[in-house]
Structure formats: structure tokens, C-alpha cells
Amino acid sequence: MTAAVDAMHDTRDFDYELPPELIAQQPASERDAARLLTLHRPSGRVEHRSFRDLPRLLDRPSLLVVNDTRVFPARLIGARDGGARVELLLLRRLAVTATGELWSCLGRPRRRLRPGTRASFGAVGAVIAELRGEEVVAELTVAGPARHDGAGSGERSAVAAWLHAEGHVPLPPYIRRGDEPLDRERYQTIFARGEEGSVAAPTAGLHFTPRLVDELRGAGHRLATITLHVGPGTFRPVRTESLTEHRMDAERYEVSVDAVREINEARAEGRRVIAVGTTTVRTLESVSDASGTVSPGSGSTSLFILPGHEFRVVDGLVTNFHLPRSTLLALVSAFAGRDRVLAAYREAVSARYRFYSYGDAMLIT
To answer: Where does 219-326 have alpha helices with state H?
Structure first.
């Protein structure tokens, strides 16, 4: 990589000042009541609208592609033997054992979680079995005689049943409060279905309501769904001087035959493809060829989109406001231009927009 290209990716160049009080701690009163900053790429012009205006802001029939992943209550709060507080963030189930389930997790405090450490989270007990880099492997068991029911034919395992009853919504760390009953609904998009695989919501989708979807369809727009299960890398800060030195975590995706047909037909007919969220962007750009044709399938992607990326599928983007020096801000800057994005962010700060997961949104066209 040349010095000139690498200079485009200096982490310090993706910074901005944000007053802490603008970090949204609660969702808007209604999903589609969020504000919507519209950024026009050709001119850099900015408009201040409401998310409810989205059907009228898309001035010609478009295809909106949304992420239908489901967030699961992956955060456990309990105590180690001896009484010290401990937290686990469950990432993925690795195996079913004779007495419970093995899970890959992130744990706090990490330095106190060694193989053999025991912890209790109410009716669920955990034993740390192994250390794998930043992650720990823990065996989870449910107290009582029915430790595991096999989870056959769509039934939940005993551990999964307990998680749904007692587990905590994995709110991001900049929301400085405990999760509340409302978060079970509001930190989940209306599109969420099927497998529960995410430890963070695809937050651009949080603003949609059934009524708004009906208005979009009534205005001639179509919707397609893909799946990307959001992992903890979405919160992981960039600690390198150059973004090119940062490594993205792999995340699982699935793109159906029906979604591919919708996307490829839209492109062939000259309709815009509007990605709802950066997770959707990364998925579409991962499963397309050089001509922009999308193929069905499942797998994992660690695609890191930086300025200089040539977008092959996406023509527009609905997204929330992202953290300074983050991989997500780099992606948005790649799509709309760093200077224009940062200027729009400064205007959003001046206009007192709400930022991050439960905050307001942007439409970039």
C-alpha cells in the first residue's frame, strides 16, 4: 500500500467532537419519531426531516434491503464463587454437553476468569472451561433435574429457555443504564425473525414501523431481507494508528434466493438499492461480483469497507450516527466522502440530534 493511500485511512481523520449528553440513553417515544438528516452525495446538501418522511424522500421507486437478524438476551450478570460480580456476553453456542451447553463468551473482569472459575447467574451456573484469546469458553448448566431437553423439533434447550426468561438485553456500553423491560421490544427491529444470532441490533432498522413499511410499499418501493448476525466487533474500538491495521471480526450471513432475485431485478430495471444499515451494506458487498450481481448463499464475512472502496450494489444508505474513529464511520465515509460526512455530523451535533443505537438517523442518497 502506498503512503498516499494509507494516509486516507489515518484513524485520527475519522474523529469528531460529541457532547456526552447527545448519546441517546432511551429510544424515541415511537420508532419512526426519530429525526432524519438527509445527505445528498452529489452536492453535499443537508436536509433536516423526520424518519416518517422517508417514503417521500425516496423520489423514485427503490428497493430497500433490511437485515432480519434477531438479537437474543445474551448478557448474564452474576457472581463468582466468593461473591465478586461477573458478567458474560454470550457470543455463540459451540456444543451441547451431557449436562449443559458450551458457549464462547466475552467476560468481565477478564483477568479473574481462569479455567475452573465458577459463577452463578440465578438458576444458571457457569464454569470457565478454556481461554481463547479475548474470548472464554464457558459451560452453562441449568439447576434442577431437566438440565437439557435436547432442543429438538424447534424446542428450546433449558439454557435457551432460561436466557429468554432471565437473560439481559445486550445494550451497547455507551448506554449507561441497566436494561429495562421496554428494551426487549425496542432493541429489536420489526423485521427480526428466525434464528437468534446477534448480540447487537442492526440499529438503522429500529426506526421502521408496520405503518411506515405499508407507506413505502404504497409509494411503489419494495423491501427485501438479508441476514447478518451482528457480533461484538461492532463495538470494538480501533486502537491502531491506521484503519488498515485493524482487523474486523467475522460475522455470519445468509442471503436467500428470493432476496437475490429482488436485488438483481432492481438493478436490471434501474431502481436504486437502498441498504438499511451498515450490516446490510457489508453483506451485499460481500456476496456480489465485479459487475454487482448478487449471489445467494451463507457464510461469514470480515469485509472492512474503507474510503476507496468501489460500491457495486448499494446506491443509498439509511444509517444511524456512529462513534468517532469507528469502522462504521469509515464505511459511511467510504460511501459519501469523509469531508461531507464529518460536515454533516458537525451539523447534527449543532442541531442537537441524538446519537448512536437509540438515536436519530441519516439518509444518504
So the answer is: 257-268, 278-286
CA angle 325, 113, 78 (to 5 degrees): 90
Q: What is the total count of domains within the chain? A: 2
- Expressed as residue numbers, the domain containing 135 is 75-166
pLDDT in tens, 260-296: 999 999 999 999 999 999 999 999 999 999 999 999 9
Residue 133 · residue 247 · CB < 8 Å: no
What would the grid cell of residue 341 be?
460526512
Banded model confidence at residue 144, pLDDT cuts 50, 70, 90? low
Find the CATH number of the domain harbouring 20. Answer: 3.40.1780.10
Contact of 303 with 282, CB cutoff 8 Å: yes
Are residues 102 and 48 located together in one domain of the fold?
Answer: no
Specify whether 151 is located in the same domain as 271: no
pTM exceeds 0.90, yes or no: yes
Please state, in angstroms and rounded to a whole number, the distance separating the CA atoms of residues 156 and 158.
Answer: 6
Per the listing, cell 423520489 goes with: 59
pLDDT of residue 145: 45
Instruction: Give the end of a domain, one of 166, 201, 225.
Output: 166
Query: 274 is written with which cell numbers?
Result: 437502498
In a domain, residue 175? The reply is no
